[in-house]
């Protein structure tokens, strides 16, 4: 039986196997599973941190994960709008553009 490849494995498995192991086992296997915050809350914290730090490539992945973890497009938009006043307008605008792109209906 073949185990499904993780996103980290797909992205970096052939280049940085140790980083993939740490990502899969420590970050997502331990930190994200701790009982102190729900996955939904962890996603909200992560999305806002990545937006504030202008980490777009990681932000796109985490916006999708946030949606999967129960945050709505409207909640994410509100959090990112609020963040504009604390982390900068360009950071928030970039994050909101990414949110719009990943939640836009598929073209016919």
Could you outline the blueprint of secondary structure elements for this entry?
Layout: H1 7-12, H2 17-27, H3 39-52, H4 56-68, H5 73-87, H6 89-103
Helix pairs in contact: 3-4, 3-5, 4-6, 5-6
Q: Give the averaged pLDDT, no decimals.
A: 94
Q: Give the distance, in angstroms, between the N- and C-terminal Cα atoms.
A: 37 Å
Backbone structural class: mainly alpha
Helix-strand sequence: HHHHHH
Provide the low-confidence segments as ranges: none
> Number of helical segments?
6
Instruction: Characterize the overall form.
Output: globular
Counting DSSP E segments of at least 2 residues, the number of strands comes to: 0
The percent range for strand residues is under 5%
Helix content, binned percent: 55-70%
Our Rg estimate from Cα atoms comes to 15 Å
The biggest sheet amounts to: none
């Amino acid at each position: 039986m073949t185990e499904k490849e993780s996103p980290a494995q797909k992205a970096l498995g052939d280049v940085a196997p140790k980083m993939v192991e740490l990502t899969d086992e420590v970050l997502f296997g331990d930190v994200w599973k701790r009982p102190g915050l729900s996955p939904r809350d962890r996603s909200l914290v992560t999305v806002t941190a990545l937006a504030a730090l202008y980490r777009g490539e990681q932000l796109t992945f985490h916006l999708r994960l946030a949606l999967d973890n129960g945050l709505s497009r409207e909640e994410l938009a509100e959090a990112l709008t609020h963040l504009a006043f604390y982390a900068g307008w360009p950071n928030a605008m970039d994050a909101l553009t990414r949110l719009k792109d990943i939640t836009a209906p598929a073209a016919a």
